């Protein structure tokens, strides 16, 4: 909650963060999550759905390849990364949260950027609208081990572009694509249901 302080003749505004219990989450609310063997991370509410709030981690939790082999066949759903998230990452969440998490995944191009000509020409489609907080480029940028990094998005490139690439967000908050066997940041997205 912003407060105003007098400093000489000028007023200075200060944002004070405090931990409070809420019954209903709002866009911009932040939680802290301890992931076993990964560390402590924050995640921010990006959207309120009829099932519950949609969270995106504020930073990457790991650096992984999308697939061991350089292919985007089967898209994100059939990827090694998706399997790793289900088999390794989900069990790392606090036990009390695990049963309330639905759709543990990574962001789509649409969630980060909306849909534009480049997306239409190059990427396999998704049905997602740009999330309100992702309009600002700085919210699309994330960090891994105190360095800004590139991070995966779910969208594979169209076959006429390449059968090897998936979309990613670069360290400037822009989109491009990279080979599936490269290691990039993993920024989890999940729905927290009641």
Description:
- This protein is of the alpha+beta class and 194 residues long.
- It has one domain.
- It is 16% helix and 37% strand.
- It is built from five helices and 14 strands.
- The protein has helices at 80-92, 95-98, 109-113, 117-122, 137-140, and strands at 2-7, 10-15, 30-35, 39-48, 53-57, 62-65, 101-105, 142-144, 147-149, 151-156, 165-169, 175-179, 183-186, 189-192.
- The strands form five sheets. The protein has a five-stranded antiparallel β-sheet with strand order 3-4-5-14-7, covered by helices on one side.
- β4 and β5 (53-57) form a beta hairpin.
- The two termini are 27 Å apart.
- The relative contact order is 0.20.
Structure summary:
With 194 residues, the protein is an alpha+beta fold.
List key phrases describing it.
194 residues, alpha+beta, three-stranded antiparallel beta sheet, 14 strands, globular
Helix/strand-derived category reads: alpha+beta
SSE succession: EEEEEEHHEHHHEEEEEEE
The biggest beta sheet is recorded as: 5 strands, antiparallel
Physical arrangement of strands within the biggest beta sheet: 3-4-5-14-7
Count the DSSP helices. 5
Taken together, the total number of domains comes to: 1
Find the count of extended strands (DSSP E, 2+ residues): 14
Report the uncertain regions.
none
Task: Compute the separation of the termini in Å.
Answer: 27 Å
Shape designation: globular
Summarize the amount of helix as a percent range.
Answer: 10-25%
Work out the radius of gyration: 18 Å
């Amino acid at each position: 909650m912003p407060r105003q302080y007098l400093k000489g003749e000028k007023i200075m505004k200060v944002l004070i963060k405090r931990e409070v219990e809420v019954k209903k989450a709002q866009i911009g609310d932040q939680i802290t999550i301890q992931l076993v063997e990964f560390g402590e991370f924050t995640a921010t509410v990006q959207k309120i759905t009829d099932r519950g709030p949609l969270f995106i981690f504020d930073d990457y939790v790991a650096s992984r390849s999308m697939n061991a082999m350089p292919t985007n066949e089967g898209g994100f759903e059939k990827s090694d990364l998706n399997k790793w998230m289900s088999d390794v990452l989900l069990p790392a969440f606090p036990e009390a949260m695990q049963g309330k998490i639905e759709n543990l995944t990574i962001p789509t191009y649409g969630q980060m950027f909306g849909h534009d000509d480049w997306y239409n020409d190059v990427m396999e489609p998704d049905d997602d609208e740009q999330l309100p907080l992702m309009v600002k480029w700085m919210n699309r940028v994330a960090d891994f081990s105190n360095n800004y990094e590139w991070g995966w998005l779910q969208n594979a490139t169209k076959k006429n572009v390449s059968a090897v690439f998936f979309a990613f967000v670069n360290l400037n908050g822009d989109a491009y694509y990279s080979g599936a066997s490269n290691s990039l940041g993993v920024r989890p997205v999940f729905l927290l249901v009641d």
